[in-house]
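Lecture notes, unit on protein representations.

Consider one protein chain, 176 amino acids long.
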Amino acid sequence: MDEIAQVYARSLFEVAQEQGKLDVVREELGQITEALEENAELRLFFYSPYFSTDEKRDGLRRTVTDADPMTMNVLDILVENHRLPVLPRLRREYERRWREANNLLPVTVTSAVELDDAVVERIGDEIGRQTGRTVELTRKVDPSIVGGFVVRVGNAILDASIKNRLDNLRKQIVRA
């Protein structure tokens, strides 16, 4: 299913980029996906094989109003091909491509306790300086890491937590 979502996302992204509607489509995909995630009845209707393509298309027209024709075309194609369940994956892939096109780098700083704003900003600024990209900084508090912090930059992880150090020490003791 991931490959299917990637194909649809790439095609949609390229067309949206050509038409200068990257942000519009991103916003609409987000709203539609969230509506499906939050409403079990809506999900049941659109994902169920018991309803015909025409019924789903009609339901789509009633549910999604004022959307860009490009977004509606993709939704129509997904309904027609019985692939609407790939929509959340399509959205994630589209979002990834949008971030890349906008030179954004997601960074998450996780610590055992709330860190000072200046410390978190300094971490984000340094990562931005080293990568040459605009950092989208998110912070989390997770007491289970005991101390230190974990920084996730895109798909890379720097784990400087005490929990990680203790786990590594435990593994070394077991091997010895």
